[in-house]
Amino acid sequence: MNRATLLLLTRTTLSLFILLLVSSSATATETSVVVEGQYVMADGDTLAMAEEKVLQRAQRKAVEEAGIYLESTFHDYESVRNGKSTQVSSLEIRTLAAAITKTDVQESRRSFERDRPVFTIRIRAVVNLDHLQEAVRRWRSEEQLAAHFRQLQEENAKLKAQLRETHTPPSGVRTLVIEPPGRTGPQGQARHLLETALHSHNLRQKIDLTSQAAALDPQFVDALIVRGQTYLKMVSLAFSNKSRPSEYSEYIDYARMDFDRALLMDARNPWALLGQGDARTWLNQPEAAESAYTQALEIDPFFDIARQRLIRVTTTQARKLTSTKQWDSAMTTLNRMLNSSVSESWIPSQKEAYLLRGELHQKLNQSTQAIDDLSVVIDIDPTHVQALLMRGKLYREQLQGRLAKEDFEQACILGAPAACEQLP
């Protein structure tokens, strides 16, 4: 069996000659660069592929000589298998396309080196530094999102494994636990059981321990809350595992009953209200969920988890109403949340809500309000293409050509063909 041999083509980088010329006609954010590069054709290349690769190398050198270092890998490898060689490049083509606004080929020639075609090219490239910095920033953002997605996948795999454990019948011998001094009474034993449950990562064991605690002390609100939360955790795991609703619907009912019972004993318990809101969300009762989260925040305005849940359930409900063209109802739902007095630090978490309200204002021919909401979205995320496109069109309708052009140009730079088509 032939083994693939990976050889780094260092000779390609050694054979690149760079000449930097700053054009007198360049703008403040553009640099004109002349570069020369070579590429040794691999066995798997066609002539067109080889010409494209040598041009890409020259363009990359132009970008580097312009003074911006790309924090992305660029290595050329030659792989030899069954006597034939192929080359692979990790060059970020999108970054080059965003950075180089113009390329003029000054010279192109071919030669041979050890019976292999060598392509040489000299180009003059105009590099826009602002566009390049923006492209690099987007690339970093995408890398962070990819890393976050991989982390979520790993966590999801662990949760699925834990869900499978909950379906495994308990086995083994139960051991007798001797309670330490001071915990011999029912209430003390109940609290000890709850502490044990809180430190357990096994959902079945959590249910068992909190049930024992609730039985020992029927007025123990915390045991009911923790058990209700555990039931909802099992619901979430089953849902992520694409189980049928019938397989976890009873868990939702158990959780709802626990939180309702806890609130009968302590009507101002924010954690019980949070759980009630979560249970109502799973039961597809958004108005009841919103009410529960709002009550929790009235009791504790700094209850961040309830604030996050409120933003999510309100935005989701407004989106559903919008999809059925119930625009006034959707607007009322969003206004209840967005018009409330909260810290500005929460505005980024409300980005999707502002975007949706901007769309609703646009549908209701309320251009000024739509522009205001879209501007909030763009302030939060200057690379939000949809918001830029929408605001640009609204500016154009208001005959604010310069502002419209700025939005379309930014969206075009970010890779939106629809925005590029709007430019003269």
Describe the overall structure.
The structure is a single chain. This protein has 424 residues and is an alpha+beta fold. Among the domains are: 132 residues, no CATH class; 114 residues, Alpha Horseshoe (Serine Threonine Protein Phosphatase 5, Tetratricopeptide repeat). It is built from 17 helices and 7 strands. A 4-stranded antiparallel beta sheet has the order 2-3-7-6. Strands 1-4-5 form a 3-stranded antiparallel beta sheet, with no helix packed on it. The protein starts with a strand and ends with a helix.
Give a short summary of the structure.
The protein has helices at residues 10-14, 47-65, 93-99, 129-166, 186-198, 203-216, 221-240, 249-265, 270-282, 286-299, 304-323, 327-338, 351-363, 367-380, 385-397, 401-413, 417-422, and strands at residues 5-8, 17-19, 30-40, 76-81, 84-89, 100-113, 116-128. It is α+β, with helices and mostly antiparallel strands.
Q: Would you identify the regions where 5 or more consecutive residues have pLDDT less than 50?
A: 1-28, 68-82, 84-94, 172-179
Strand order in the largest sheet:
2-3-7-6
pLDDT averaged over residues = 78
Proportion of beta-strand residues: 5-15%
How many strand segments? 7
Rounded to an integer in angstroms, the radius of gyration calculated over CA atoms is 31 Å
**Oligomer type:** single chain
Largest sheet: 4 strands, antiparallel
